[in-house]
Amino acid sequence: MSIGKVERRPRGAMPRVLIVDDETDIRELLDLTVARMGLSADCAANATEARQFLGQHRYQLCLTDMRLPDGDGLEIVRLISERHGETPVAVITAFGSAQNAVAALKAGAFDYLTKPISLDHLRSLINSALNLPHQPGSTDSKPSAEAGAQLIGQSAAIDHVRRMIDKLARSQAPVYISGESGTGKELAARLIHDRSARRAAPFVPVNCGAIPENLMESEFFGYRKGAFTGADGDRDGFFQAAKGGTLFLDEVADLPLVMQVKLLRAIQEKKVRKVGSPTEEAVDVRIISATHRDLKECVDARTFRQDLYYRLNVIELRMPPLRERHEDVEPLIVALLQRIGGSRPPRLDSAALRALTAYSFPGNVRELENILERATALCANDTVSLDDLHLAADELVAQSGGGRGGETLDDYINRIEKQAILDALNKTAFNRTAAARLLGVSFRSLRYRIERLGIEE
Questions:
Q1: Which residues contact 85 (CB under 8 A, 6 or more apart)?
Q2: Do residues 186 and 39 both lie within one domain?
Q3: Which spans in 170-203 are helix H?
Q4: Collapsed DSSP state (helix, strand, coil) of residue 371
Q5: CATH of the domain at 240
Q6: Within-domain flag for 251
Q7: What's the mean pLDDT when you consider all of the chain?
Q8: In the prediction, which pLDDT does 395 show?
């Protein structure tokens, strides 16, 4: 049975690819390459034929041109993202059409190819797409060394982060992770890598602010023997070390402008030149970047290149500060104490727990971990008391908006907590579900606090 003028080939149980392009020679090139890789292909000359195929078959990959006679590739990308989320789709763009490629990645494309098509890049893209986990969050292949780490908590903010990570793992798009220090930006980058088609290849984290400026080019791109004094042999850089995997550029805002130019070229061309080498070499890496600074403000201040900003910030993932998800403090405490104490973790007494849940954590999760490590070392009888925490009193006062006069810290914390709950209940006409949502805690947690503090309607 045929569908219009759609080209079809016999196939068995092999993976199936949908090719959408109005140029016959491009369709034939893609079809031949796919066939030589042991895959089956259906070929469509326009968006209408592509939609017909998508309505009748499931595909492991779709390759579509950006310009079609009856539409554009973005329509195909959006259609597949909405109705066939398990199918990765890659777009084919004209050379130099970086804006089109970025638009496709933002719309949900897995990756992109530029014309003239590189067969090596095409084969690499196909292999990556077919290597994607079948379900979001699946880790059915070799994980990285940090695969045991996870995002802890059930707040709405952290649930959103988890959903974004699952979505980003099924793409090759560059990701920019924003957030304050200590919010878990590197952990998020590792999770994206571990759940992606690149999970069997290296994850290479780089602290851009820790590399001397005069060594940056050789550290990033490598060097050839004799390129400079002390270069006694060839050496690979970060890009080569991350081959086939993910390069995580932490504190990317600290890169000097000269290095930003070279990084931009490497990302655009997918090639790097070792120091002292006359030729470039292709590199296949995914870039994930992060910084605790506001990168847009850096662009406005002209300390960060705008063109590099748009290449890195194709999709942004914001890591929320701990003060925006206080509901997660208690489960974080439990997990961190188990990690610190091993088989016999210490426990917190009630005053210490209330103090931590009222604390504003300017250093976020990293500060919480440091507080608990210090308290564990100081505590007696495996019980952490309020005195063991050594919390900054000004942060407790800053959160409440006032002082505690002659109250004990226990009474002070209880009063502030009780007032916050009463305010939320009054705003919601004592609807506990709505009040819990307003306070950013679970209904069960709010009910426990109401009973403990003796709050009555």
A1: none
A2: no
A3: 185-194
A4: helix
A5: 3.40.50.300
A6: yes
A7: 86
A8: 57
Q: Look at 174 and 268; give whichever has higher pLDDT.
A: 174
Rg (CA), the chain: 27
**Same domain, residue pair 173 and 293:** yes
Are 30 and 96 in a shared domain? yes
Q: How wide is the angle at C-alpha 103 spanned by C-alphas 101 and 104, nearest 5°?
A: 65
pLDDT tens track for 300-315: 999 999 999 999 999 9
The tokens describing 18, both together, are 């949908």
Range of the domain at 116: 7-130
Residue 174 contacts residue 312 (beta carbons within 8 Å): yes
> Shortest CA distance to 19 belongs to which of 116, 132, 113, 147?
113
Better pLDDT: 249 or 391: 249
303 and 333 part of one domain = no
DSSP 29: H
Domain with residue 66: its CATH number is 3.40.50.2300
341: confidence class by pLDDT, cuts 50, 70, 90? confident
Would you call 374 helix, strand, or coil by DSSP?
A: helix
Count of domains observed in the chain: 3
Pair of tokens at residue 307: 């063109």
Report whether pLDDT(270) > 80. Answer: yes
Cβ distance 33 to 76 under 8 Å? no
Residue 339 is assigned to a structural domain of this protein: yes
Q: How far, in Å, CA of 288 to CA of 9, rounded?
A: 39
Angle between helix 73-83 and 47-56 (nearest 10): 20
Preceding amide of 321 cis, omega within 30: no
> How large is the greatest C-alpha to C-alpha distance in the chain, in angstroms?
86
Residue 99 lies in a domain: yes
For 137-160, what is each residue's pLDDT tens digit?
444 444 443 334 689 998 989 999
pTM for this entry: 0.76
| 430-450 tens-digit pLDDT | 888 888 888 877 887 788 788
Contact present, 162 and 151 (Cβ < 8 Å): yes
Query: Rounded mean pLDDT of 330-354?
Result: 88
Read off the amino acid at residue 327. Answer: E
Report how far residue 188's alpha carbon sits from residue 197's, in angstroms, rounded to the nearest whole number. 16
Give CA separation, 66 vs 72, 90, 91, 92, in Å: 5, 10, 6, 6
Residue 457 is predicted with a pLDDT of 67
